[in-house]
Amino acid sequence: MKQNPDSYLLYEAGKFITYNIRIKIVMKHRVNGGALEKAAQTAFKRFPYYAKKINILPNGEIELKHNDAPICVTVTDGKHPRFGSKELNYHLCSIDYSGNIIYFNIYHGLCGGCGAMFWIKSTLWHYIKEAFGAELENSTVKTADTPFAEGETAFPDAEKLEDAEPLGSVKADTVYVPALGYASKLLNPLKEPKYYELELEAGDFMKYARSNDGSPNSILSALMFKAVCKVTSPAIAKAVRGNILCNYRSDVGCPETYHDLVRLMSVFYSRDLEDKSVEFLSTVTRSMMYVQMQPEFSVKTFKYACKCKEGVDRQNGLLRKRLYCKLNSPYTKPPFGTFLISYVCRDDWSGLEDYVERIHCITDGDLMVEVNALRDKFFLTFMELDGKHKFYDAFCEAMREENIHFIEHGCHKRLLPYSVLPKKSKGYL
Prior knowledge:
It is globular and about 55 Å long. Helices cover about 30% and strands about 25% of the residues. It has a seven-stranded mixed β-sheet. A five-stranded mixed β-sheet has the order 4-6-7-1-12, with helices on one face. The chain contains nine helices and 16 strands. It has helices at about 35-45, 115-130, 180-185, 200-210, 215-230, 280-290, 295-315, 320-330, 390-400, and strands at about 20-25, 50-55, 60-65, 75, 80-85, 95-100, 100-105, 195-200, 240-245, 260-270, 340, 355-360, 370-375, 375-385, 405-415, 420. The protein is α/β, with parallel strands linked by helices.
């Protein structure tokens, strides 16, 4: 590929699908704006690979150039952050805060949740030092003076990865996809989608998972299947597919990289499983996940993604490049899922946990559950486009039926960032 691999998602971004992330950190104290501003600038210098601005070349290629401007730290104003805009110093990430909440906003092409935590934990570490004078243990934090780790910026070379067919395949049968939620959003793009926050005791949830032959991913997938069955008829939802995100950085030789290297594991549920126990469904889920954890699936996924990027390179003009992406993007290819579970790592927050109350990752998506964790808590962020929140209610009902205790922290607007491309110039199209 010709371009910085982080740039390609910008061809696909828009106001409906933004490919941006907003991570909400609920602190145990009111945020000190001055301390946060100073800490943010100190930490951000440690991550030059996030300090980027957009430039469009005459052939339509989106170039990411280094941006020396300070990262913007502002009071939350209830509006969508606009990446690439003058008010954000043309950056593709920003920070805003209100009360005891800090939002970290970042373009998904730069990284996913794993990579973003490098920056977030560093900023919080410096903030706590600045605001409270506290010296926290930092073995899991990349502070301003932490040397670059070997492989931190590594990106796989597709030509050096061996081709091999995985043993087994993903069931590609047609399943129920909640398309009405997307249709309603397209018909009324000004309607702000919502998300819902939940908190679970980690000890109790893991005890439940182990007693039901499960992991957090398999249990949540089983519960989501139960929820979908509660609100859809068998005639409409004859089969359901759960997609579960898998972090495959290690499979392609880049375990420490900031780059977003994730793929989907696909779990097919026929409707006749509706009345089966969560334990049974979890066993089915884990068996299908096990088959798809082969590194060969990761290599195949990565090589297809590289092939799509090379296809973009061959197009001349921004319009043609964007059209090619819409038709060939890995995100537009089957197998399409009914829902998505995203829990790809459990990070070590060490001393930061004494200052952090909750973590929620807010993204695009419909019937999507993002999972974050601290030492003794799991935090679920439930995304649903349908304003009637029937799937969210059904998911909560499924957990109650299993005596899984949870705390609800309300319904909120997503307010995801938009990415703003530079104004048209010669050769733009």
